Amino acid sequence: MPFIQVALPTPLRRLFDYRPVAGEPLPQTGVRVKVPFGHRQLIGLVMGLTETSELSANRIKAALTYLDSQALFSQQHLDFISWVANYYHQPLGEVMQAALPALLRQGQALHPPQEVRWQLTEIGRQTALDDLKRAPRQAALIRTLQASGLAKTQKSLQAEGFTLAMLKGLQSKNLIEIQTLATTKKGIGLPQLATREQLPANVLAEVPLKLTEEQRQVVELLIKEVGGFNPTLLQGVTGSGKTEVYLQLIQHLLEQGKQVLVLIPEIGLTPQTLKRFEKRFNRRVVALHSGMTDKERLTAWRSALEGRAAVVLGTRSAIYTPLPKLGLIIVDEEHDSSFKQQDGVRYQARDLAVLRAKQEAIPVLLGSATPSLESLAKAKAGAYRWLYLKQRPGADVQVPEPKLLDIRNRHLTGGFSEPLFRAMDKHLKEQNQVLVLLNRRGFAPVLMCTSCGWIAGCLQCDARMTWHREPPKLHCHHCDQQQPLPTHCPQCLEGELKPLGAGTERAEETLQERYPEIPVIRLDRDSVKNRNDLASKLEQIASQRPAILLGTQMLAKGHHFPDVTLATLLNADHGLYSSDPRAMERTAQLIIQVAGRAGRAEKPGEVIIQTHHSDDPRLEKLCVKGYEALALDLLEERQKINWPPYAYLAMLRAEAPKSEQVEQFMSQLAEQANLLNQEGIALLGPVPAPMERRQGRYHMQFLLHDNKRAPLHRLAANLLLWLETSPEARRVRWSLDIDPEDL
Ligand code: ADP
Ligand code: ZN
Ligand code: ZN
């Protein structure tokens, strides 16, 4: 008798052997199984069978039950997930868990249990009610069933007052039976069995737009190569019709009966995006994102697994969705940082999209107005095909060039300079909308005492508390600590407390004071808590003119605001001189996104970027020459300093409540790394994390750097072996991040 090998959600990076469930046929690979594990029971996935085990046979426990009658993951999909676990050095069982909807992780059945229905047997149908005179309730039950001629659910019968005991009694007399497929008789009524869906022959539910010449060329080229692995970077300015290109490409795949996976950023998936896809196709389009209930997720996931969902539109973790007929993967806004999972099982969904496409020999399309340096480097090297959309279809209105407005030595009111106000006056007077982007929530990022200089800091973090007005409080955006607003300075007891800088609440107040007649529509995480809030804000935006749209990133992504003619970024400086090597890239992407909001439709637009560094050559290049020119410069810099995407990184992080604990551990780690380092990997650190104290814990990091991937991964793997067995490592919380993005 072979043993079954099970992937279990434990930190141990190995499979576990069990004896098969007694009296059941051997399980297929890819089904869930419940097993005893220490004092607990765990749910894992069967990865295969083995004749031999390292454990002696009498120490191997028996599995308890199989939870699926059919595999949830095909062999190919299991291979993909095993690859992910290997590459990121994560336990397979935990990657598996990340790939399963919560309800399946918890052991729920893939299909909701069928309702129990009772029907008459042949005898029951011919029984005269007189024969049951002495059992009037039973007679009544038979009468009910005879009268309707249909099977009835147990629930409805119980609601009519028939008990389970009565049903069982009649069953033992062979008068009624539980309806199953085998006992369903013609004319007695069919149970609700999943019938094969009849799909309309025409994939299209609406007439698609007529493509521009530029779009048509892209679609034709991509259709021609739909048969194999073909990574493409589609660099298209905002509003150039990338989504329309996706839709027409998807149409082609759906006509061949294929499924398509579309990955979108966390906040890019709005009800409108979903509607736009649903409206186009006579096929099932499902969403997969964190805002859904567990039940909704399971339903969507199941329809993907069963091949009924033709298009899956999902955020990061949707990359793990099983799709038996997958024919194409699209990653929209591929530069977006939400594709990187930053904790638990860390992965980069964009990279996995390319990998999965390669394994399945299908094309993958990465779309963005501001591609990541990673993808640009691949395109430049010829590893990805590089296509452009440079025009906006329809009107002659093109993306306006951003103008830098220097605010050095200028008086700011709630973050706004006088010249900016004057520009806004003009656009509002023309009955248009103005979009103001400010990437800071709350009233003010700093609360300070004017006489002694005290600043409200977080007790848990090396961070300042943000002052919020509604409701009034101090709030740390890093650890979520909240405190009531102090009434006086806790240090000198007498100074006046004043806000420094502006968040969206303060900007809103400033705008309401200056433009009392004009609606200010604010979108940030405090004012938009769910999809309904978002829908109602978007509705306001669609119906009010003039208006000011004020918000964080939320406002810069994915929406079409045809009446916005002025878009402005209140402060471009947050990322400019940061220690994060990606800061400039991110700032540039944000500026271009903001610019993309202005001057859609028929109206020419204007874009104003406030900064203290208008002479920064990188900003100038971005505004005058555009994103690609700047990005290519940044790439050159990266190449010079031998940094990703031209080199590889792995980050080891550790944290502990006491700084000595983490320091001591990190120096041991560094020592080990030096010992194990046979291949000359550069070891950087250990150093304190950019925010050393966070949530009351001390954080440090240690970076491995090399221009080859394989030796770097070998060292990481060896270090992991040490980490997993050394007692020192148990005293801290540590993690390994392959291809880290936050340094
Ligand atoms: P992107 O995804 O690049 O931002 P979209 O596909 O959303 O661009 O297109 C931007 C706008 O242009 C949308 O309102 C869309 O309906 C319109 N559009 C796209 N392609 C065409 C076309 N070929 N003809 C007319 N309008 C188009
Ligand atoms: Zn003070
Ligand atoms: Zn904090």
From TrEMBL:
<comment type="function">
    <text>Initiates the restart of stalled replication forks, which reloads the replicative helicase on sites other than the origin of replication. Recognizes and binds to abandoned replication forks and remodels them to uncover a helicase loading site. Promotes assembly of the primosome at these replication forks.</text>
</comment>
<dbReference type="Pfam" id="PF00270">
    <property type="entry name" value="DEAD"/>
</dbReference>
<keyword id="KW-0639">Primosome</keyword>
<keyword id="KW-0479">Metal-binding</keyword>
<dbReference type="Pfam" id="PF18074">
    <property type="entry name" value="PriA_C"/>
</dbReference>
<feature type="binding site">
    <location>
        <position position="452"/>
    </location>
    <ligand>
        <name>Zn(2+) 1</name>
    </ligand>
</feature>
<keyword id="KW-0547">Nucleotide-binding</keyword>
<dbReference type="Pfam" id="PF00271">
    <property type="entry name" value="Helicase_C"/>
</dbReference>
<keyword id="KW-0235">DNA replication</keyword>
<dbReference type="InterPro" id="IPR011545">
    <property type="entry name" value="DEAD/DEAH_box_helicase_dom"/>
</dbReference>
<dbReference type="InterPro" id="IPR005259">
    <property type="entry name" value="PriA"/>
</dbReference>
<feature type="binding site">
    <location>
        <position position="476"/>
    </location>
    <ligand>
        <name>Zn(2+) 2</name>
    </ligand>
</feature>
<keyword id="KW-0067">ATP-binding</keyword>
<keyword id="KW-0862">Zinc</keyword>
<dbReference type="InterPro" id="IPR027417">
    <property type="entry name" value="P-loop_NTPase"/>
</dbReference>
<comment type="subunit">
    <text>Component of the replication restart primosome.</text>
</comment>
<feature type="binding site">
    <location>
        <position position="461"/>
    </location>
    <ligand>
        <name>Zn(2+) 2</name>
    </ligand>
</feature>
<feature type="binding site">
    <location>
        <position position="449"/>
    </location>
    <ligand>
        <name>Zn(2+) 1</name>
    </ligand>
</feature>
<dbReference type="Pfam" id="PF17764">
    <property type="entry name" value="PriA_3primeBD"/>
</dbReference>
<keyword id="KW-0347">Helicase</keyword>
<dbReference type="InterPro" id="IPR014001">
    <property type="entry name" value="Helicase_ATP-bd"/>
</dbReference>
<keyword id="KW-0413">Isomerase</keyword>
<comment type="similarity">
    <text>Belongs to the helicase family. PriA subfamily.</text>
</comment>
<dbReference type="InterPro" id="IPR040498">
    <property type="entry name" value="PriA_CRR"/>
</dbReference>
<feature type="binding site">
    <location>
        <position position="492"/>
    </location>
    <ligand>
        <name>Zn(2+) 1</name>
    </ligand>
</feature>
<dbReference type="InterPro" id="IPR041222">
    <property type="entry name" value="PriA_3primeBD"/>
</dbReference>
<dbReference type="Pfam" id="PF18319">
    <property type="entry name" value="Zn_ribbon_PriA"/>
</dbReference>
<feature type="binding site">
    <location>
        <position position="489"/>
    </location>
    <ligand>
        <name>Zn(2+) 1</name>
    </ligand>
</feature>
<feature type="binding site">
    <location>
        <position position="458"/>
    </location>
    <ligand>
        <name>Zn(2+) 2</name>
    </ligand>
</feature>
<dbReference type="InterPro" id="IPR001650">
    <property type="entry name" value="Helicase_C-like"/>
</dbReference>
<keyword id="KW-0238">DNA-binding</keyword>
<feature type="binding site">
    <location>
        <position position="479"/>
    </location>
    <ligand>
        <name>Zn(2+) 2</name>
    </ligand>
</feature>
<protein>
    <recommendedName>
        <fullName>Replication restart protein PriA</fullName>
        <ecNumber>5.6.2.4</ecNumber>
    </recommendedName>
</protein>
<dbReference type="InterPro" id="IPR042115">
    <property type="entry name" value="PriA_3primeBD_sf"/>
</dbReference>
<dbReference type="InterPro" id="IPR041236">
    <property type="entry name" value="PriA_C"/>
</dbReference>
<feature type="domain" description="Helicase ATP-binding">
    <location>
        <begin position="223"/>
        <end position="389"/>
    </location>
</feature>
<keyword id="KW-0378">Hydrolase</keyword>
